[in-house]
Structure formats: structure tokens, C-alpha cells
Amino acid sequence: MWIEKNPKDIDITLAANPKKVRESMCFDETTMSRFRTEKFGTMTILPKWDNKYEYELTPFRSEWNYSDVRHPDDIHWTHDLLLDSMRRDFRINCVYMCHLPIPKQEKKQEKKITTDELSTILKREKHIYLSCSNTYIVQDHRIIKEILYQWENTSETIEKYITLSQHWVYEDIQKNKEVLTLILDPQLWIHDMIDRRIETVWNPKKRFEEDALRILRWIRFPNILNQFLPDKELQNAWFDFDKETRNALCEHANLVSHIAKERIHEELVKAFSRNNPFGYICLLDEIWLLPILFPSVEACKANKQPIRYHPFDTYTHTLLTLHALQKINTHYLAKLAMLYHDVGKPNQYAYIKEQKEMNPNNIDMSWYIHHADSGAETAKKEYAALWFSKKECEEIFRYIKRHHRPWEILTSNQKNRTKKIRQLLSEWWISKTCNLIDIAIADRLWQFNPLQGAAIQELQDMKQKAITLHDQEWRFTLQQLAINWNDIVSLYNIQPGPKIWDILRNCFDWVLGDVPSRNTKSKIIGHLKTFM
């Protein structure tokens, strides 16, 4: 089994009352900060020396009645781990682990087992001891209760069951043999991991009715889990859902509209930050959530385009470009922009069709389709409704509005290309410039008929040129111009006003043609003499 190398949040749970937990904790306010949710008893601990991690401490509890389709109305604190496990969402999210100072047991006859044999033994015996890693896995509820309710003598209890069981070796995993890893698996987590199946704890309809956010979480999980699988394993089987869970998802998809938008935003950021948003969007579409979350993307379906340039409808083209982008770019805002880069087309094509019907003999079909402008506005509005920040929306807006700009630079006079790339770098940081070019590459890959091939080498060369210019010249902005406002006023006795800004912008534009040699005060003054 694998585990994420650098998890950002670590969940800790224990059998205790939240108030008693807070009172008994030795907490150093100078090195750690914390906040807590009184009703749900969760305490979040944030180490001040490293803000990359957070620890959530939640005591065992049972809960019921979810009137807002998100939070429980009634909570009961308990010492029963089995009751706590019953409230969990998915079986792969329901496993309890701790380390105990129990050394490796006396060696018995050991037998190597495969993953399939591990699953078979667990299904038969409900507990297993893996001697190679000093790990004891328990699924038997009776044994779990005995371990928990006799905690003072837990070492003796565990050693008793280990002695009675066969010792197994699984994949030659070696760990600290002086510490026992105890894994309590009351909801059969390990079988779902082995079978690559994502099932809910108990009835899926009930689970989704309790908390609609679980629907979005479920869609995200298989995408993330499948990314960790080696290619040779992915070909054989991947994480998926069972039929009952899928039917429950489709039946309750409309409940997502009741989720707080900030929680939807968190899920989308997590999904698009991982590297398979293409699969995520496909699953959203499969369970009819696309029109709820991304209505303008849904509207792109069956939107036919000129076949000479686009052999697919706008929706198919969008998905293919998203798939291409995720192979070359990891920035979540770039991928969100790719999802919306053509959403302005349905309305634009509808307008053209209307004009053609009104004037069948007098219409020029060669004019520029202004879908980038309208699509950027639509994206800004719909992402803001999903709780994306003003800064996030603005960056997405600019990617969409300018997604043709790299190709426009390449179709311009070759002598001016370097200057125009500098203009991009002056407006954007190098990372955003590269994001924009990557969007153009992905768009280009699926713009033409596959038989024609995609001309992307020039765009790749342009990206490398931008990186080289950035390394050599950094980011050149108007503030770095060798001449300023006061120089213009003193040299030409011009009253402060808009005219000075026009002069400075003209100088800046000229300097961009060759920043290293032109950005000196004397050369800029010489340039000014040509038109002042």
C-alpha cells in the first residue's frame, strides 16, 4: 500500500470528551496556535514553525439528523470506536492506526503471501499479524472491543491474539520492529484498497442524504487514487465505484446545490490541483453534475464548429484540450481557464446563425469570433459564484481573454516577436506567461483535424524564448525605464498630465525592442528627438 509522502492535514481521533481533551492538553501558545469548533468538538492545531501542516483532533462521536444536508443536528460523544466508524463517509476513509511499544513477537514459521492472499486470509480470519513489519491488522469487532475496553492491558491482549495466529510475511516490508503498528479496520478498508473499490460506509443513499459534499468528495477520490497507481497496475484495474453507489450518486446529484459555495470551491481546487481534471469533469458529466457546477461548459455540448478548423463540437474540443494541458502544466488556475476558454462560442455562433438567416446573401463568415472576450466575462461570473476569490477570477479571466495572444505573436512580423514576448513578460510574471503559452499549445493540439497534425513547435520555441529572456533580463516594467515623469517635465517643459504618460509609454514600447542596449537615459532622449 502507498501513502501520500507529504500530507497537509493529519487527522487524530481518540476516545474522550472534547472539553476534557482541551483541558488536559499541554499546549505551548508560543509555538502553536489552535482554534476549535465547539459543536463538533474538532480542535485544529497549527504549528507556528511550519504552516504547511495542520492537525485536526476530533474525539469519537456518533451523529444523526442532517437538516441542512451537510452538518449533523445531534452529536453524541462516545468512547466506542465502532460507533465512530459508522458515521464515516467512505470505507477507504475509515481506518484507525496507532503505534504501540510492543516488540516483534517470537519468530514462528512464516509464510510469504501475495496481496490476494492477504485479502483472503482477512476475510476468513478477520485479523492478521505481519511479522516482517510488526503490524497487526484487526477487522473482527469482538477483538477490537476487547483491545479498546481493556486498554490498560492492551499489550497482553494483542500479544495473546498474535500468539494464536499464523505469522505472515507480506511484500518483505521492513519497519521498526520495536514498535507495533496496530491497524483497526472495522469497515473493511483494506479490502476496498485491494479491490480498488470506493464504497460508502453503510447505505450510500443515506450517506449522501446526510452530507451532499460527499458526492463531490467521491468524484475526486478515484481521480487522485488512480494517479498513484503504476502504469502496469492501472492497465489491469483502477479505482472505481460499485453500481449501487453510482445509482445513489445520480439520484442525489441535485443535493450539491445545497452545499456552501466555499466548500465546493475547496473541492474544485483540490481536484484541479491534482493532475487529472479531465477525468474529474467526465465523472461530473456522468452523474449529471456538470450543469449545476459549470453550466456554460454544459452549454458547449453539440455546439458545432467549422469542420475545417474544429472537427469536434466545442465541448469535446474543450475536454481534449484540458487533457492535453494537464500533461504539460500543473497550475490549477490555468486548467480552470482551459475548461472555460471556449464557452463564449455557443452565443457567438448563435448570433452568426441569426445574422445569416436575416441576410442569407450578405454575410461575411470570415470575421473574427469574439468568444475570448465573452467567454472571459462568463468565466469570471461563474467562478465568482463558486466562491473563487477576486484574484483567482482575474487570473482566469486574463488567461481566457488572451488565450489567442501567443499565436497572434507568432503570426506577426518576425522582427517584432522578441519585443512582443517582452511585452507579455512585462504584463505577467514568467510563470503566468508560460501558463498562457501552455494553454495555447493545448488549444492548438486539438484545434485542427487530426489528419493535418498540430503546429506547436513554434509555440514551444516561444515558451523557451520567454524563459531565456526572463533569465537574462528579468521582468522589465515601466518603473524600470531609465527615464521618468520628472525627466520629461524638465526636458520639455510640459505640464503634468496624460500627455506625459503617452510619452513614457512610447519610450517603454521602443525600449522593449532591445532592453539591454536601449534602456539608457541618453538613448531614450535620442529616441524622443525623433518625434518631439
Keywords summarizing the entry:
14 strands, 6-stranded mixed β-sheet, Hypothetical protein af1432, 3 domains, 50% helix, alpha/beta, 4-stranded mixed β-sheet, 532 residues, 27 helices
Shape: elongated
How many structural domains are formed by the residues?
A: 3
Rounded mean pLDDT is 84
State which percent range the strand residues make up: 5-15%
> What is the first-to-last residue Cα distance?
73 Å
- As laid out across the biggest beta sheet, the strand order is 7-12-10-9-11-8
Radius of gyration: 30 Å
Number of helices: 27
Give the low-pLDDT segments. Answer: none
Helix content: 40-55%
Count of DSSP E strands?
14
> What does the main sheet amount to?
6 strands, mixed
Q: Helices and strands: which structural class?
A: alpha/beta
Task: Write a compact overview of the structure shown.
The chain has 532 residues and is an alpha/beta fold.
Q: Could you characterize the architecture of this molecule?
A:
The chain is of the alpha/beta class and 532 residues long. It has three domains: 9-194, no CATH class; 294-475, Hypothetical protein af1432 (Orthogonal Bundle); 478-528, no CATH class. The chain contains 27 helices and 14 strands. It has a six-stranded mixed beta sheet with strand order 7-12-10-9-11-8, with helices on both faces. Strand 9 (127-130) and strand 10 form a beta hairpin. Helix 8 packs parallel to helix 11 (261-273), helix 15 runs antiparallel to helix 16 and helix 22 (430-445) packs antiparallel against helix 23 (457-473). The chain is elongated. 30% of the residues are buried. The mean pLDDT is 84.
